[in-house]
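Let's practice the habit of predicting before peeking. Look at the sequence and jot down your guess about where helices and strands might fall. Then scroll down.
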Amino acid sequence: MGLAVFALVAACGGAGSETTAVAVEEVQAVALWGAEGGFVTPTTNTLRPPRVVVYSDGQVIVDAGKTFKLTEAQLGETVASMERFLKGQPPTATPKPDAPMVTDIPDTVLGVRGKDGKMQEVRVPALDQVALFYPKELVEAKKLMDGLATRGTSEGTDYVATRVRMVAETAPGAEGKVLAWPAGVPEPSGAVDPVWKKDLDGDAAGAIVKAIPAGFENRQSLFKSGSGAVFVVSWRYLLPDE
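Done guessing? Here is the structure:
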């Protein structure tokens, strides 16, 4: 399902050396379920990962915190079902005119990569709250993704990566233990309005993971920067395609 890319492999041996092209499959997201907007904190809005992402090698990542693997057959069935459910749906779905008004709720985002290689995404406002006023296919698509999320929670292993996303939000007057800024972790620079975001790898990523080692549901702590400002600092592991 992934796109084929080619790496050149040179065989050593002086004049007799040869260069050959080896096909390598690029792992891509092929189905997803996420959320956007809603009445949430700036940190949540910036740090929030997709609820579920399914990749072309069968890996499923739930909340950027748990992972498990689908068989080839399960992967094919999942993608085919999502294609069927989202076929013909508009980029933003609209409930029937008599649907009750619901505000401050995140939009559900459902996506599938089609046979043309393009990711189709459908945004569905307040899907859970007014499900009866939307096409049943959208409800079924969300139900399918929800089943994968439940499976990830019950039988998945911890998802870890070498790259993380860190978010710092100013916290003047915050209560709780305030720690010194961890060594090796970049400090916010410039205006923090409303949050400061930084993607880290290498030693910096390892330093923030060590400084805030809590479970994936609550990776955050209070830190004081060199300038004396206090921040709520949070992080999560980046996904393979981020």
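How did you do? DSSP finds four helices and 14 strands in the chain.
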